[in-house]
Amino acid sequence: MIRSVVRGIGSALPRRIMKNTDFEGMVETSDEWIAQRTGIRQRHIAADDETTASLGEAAAREALDNAGLTPDDIDLIVLATSTPNNTFPATAVEIQQRLGMRHGFAFDMQAVCSGFVYAVTTADLYIRGGLARRVLIIGSETFSRILDWNDRSTCVLFGDGAGALVVEAQEGAGTIADQGVLAASLRSDGTHREKLYVDGGPSTTGTVGHLRMEGREVFKHAVGMITDVIEATFSEAGITAEDLDWFVPHQANKRIIDASAKKLGIADAKVVITVDRHGNTSAASVPLALAVAVKDGRIRKGDLVLLEAMGGGFTWGAVLLRW
Ligand code: ACO
Questions:
Q1: Distance 157 CA to ligand 1 centre (A)
Q2: Which of 50, 151, 153, 171 has a 20 to 30 A CA-CA distance from 135?
Q3: Residues in CB range of 43: below 8 A, 6 or more apart
Q4: Best of 110, 253, 281 for a ligand 1 pocket test (most atoms within 8 Å of beta carbon)
Q5: How many angstroms does the Cα of residue 254 sit away from the middle of ligand 1?
Q6: Do domains 2-171 and 180-322 have the same CATH topology?
């Protein structure tokens, strides 16, 4: 059975770090409020010369180096983003060009914070369907560009960054012991649109717009939706929370992560947390957190890793993979 096995990982963060205290002169807030409610202490914010394409390219180059591969070895790029450089062409194609690739194909996926989980699931299907052998999966965002910097209830929550994986087709036995993507579940429900959306777009206002969120409403639904989709993934794979080595959730809010892990019975020591340093980087949050835990030696070859995300739409999903 063909499996999509991880060959390399990379990440990139903007140069500038913005601490919670840096908001204190801009909006009525405090380090204490932000840290207590969200777990966030700082985030990286892109300068004018740092874009979704440039951050995505940097993460992709690091993932290729880590895999010992070059752009020539890649036949598909899937970029998860809600903050593309332009409405079109797809920013994935711009990254393809920046990498010097004129072969293969590239496209963007838009599922907001769940984008990376959707992209891994999609890349896995292309690989198992025989349409690609090696795929660069990138999550890259510059949410700072769509924030209303006068709205204290949203501007303190988000950050910019990118993460990337190289996955490759390898033969597996078709069991849970295989390396690679083992199971996935995706969901969406547009009835929740008004709780988290951007109030502009090419076909409506002709503007880029700003992020709008009813934080309390999102919070109310998050834990139930996240745990449901994870339980579906566990049941598809025939495992329980105890079998997991690592839980790498979307990094929106530490309280949501803690409550989800507790409900699922996942021990705190198995949960990777980066929301304190990165804030919510939307589709980049899961690969950025993965990159941290791989680079510091926590996630090792053979470990069973659960990825999860929930975001605007609502969209949500989970992916189980063996590193
Ligand atoms: N500093 C100080 N006070 C603030 C701030 C701030 N930055 N922001 C809001 N407040 C105030 C509010 O105005 C409110 O004041 P009031 O009681 O006088 O009206 C009070 O704090 C409480 O506000 P709540 O919204 O009820 O606070 P809550 O405890 O719910 O925390 C938060 C807010 C952090 C946004 C939380 O609801 C949350 O994390 N929600 C989930 C958001 C999320 O995960 N979004 C990402 C989804 S992923 C994606 O796709 C983008």
A1: 9
A2: 50
A3: 17, 18, 158, 159, 160, 277, 278, 279, 281
A4: 253
A5: 13
A6: yes
Tens digit of pLDDT at every position of the chain (323 positions): 999 999 999 999 999 999 999 999 999 999 999 999 999 999 999 999 999 999 999 999 999 999 999 999 999 999 999 999 999 999 999 999 999 999 999 999 999 999 999 999 999 999 999 999 999 999 999 999 999 999 999 999 999 999 999 999 999 999 999 999 999 999 999 999 999 999 999 999 999 999 999 999 999 999 999 999 999 999 999 999 999 999 999 999 999 999 999 999 999 999 999 999 999 999 999 999 999 999 999 999 999 999 999 999 999 999 999 99
Domain boundaries, the chain: 2-171, 180-322
Coil, helix or strand for 247?
Answer: strand
Measured CA to CA, the distance from residue 286 to residue 266 in angstroms comes to 17
| ipTM of the shown complex | 0.93
**Which two three-digit tokens encode residue 146?**
């769509």
What pTM value is reported for the model?
0.97
Active site members? 113, 250, 280
Ligand 1 is surrounded, with C-beta below 6 A, by: 29, 33-34, 37-38, 112-113, 152-153, 156, 196, 213, 215-216, 218-219, 222, 252-253, 256, 280, 282, 311-312
Is residue 136 within 8 Å of 127, Cβ to Cβ? Answer: no
Residue nearest to atom 35 of ligand 1 (CA): 215
Q: How far is the CA of 48 from the centre of ligand 1 (A)?
A: 28
CATH class of 180-322: alpha beta
Q: Which fold has domain 2-171?
A: Peroxisomal Thiolase; Chain A, domain 1 (3.40.47)
Residue found under tokens 């659960």: 306
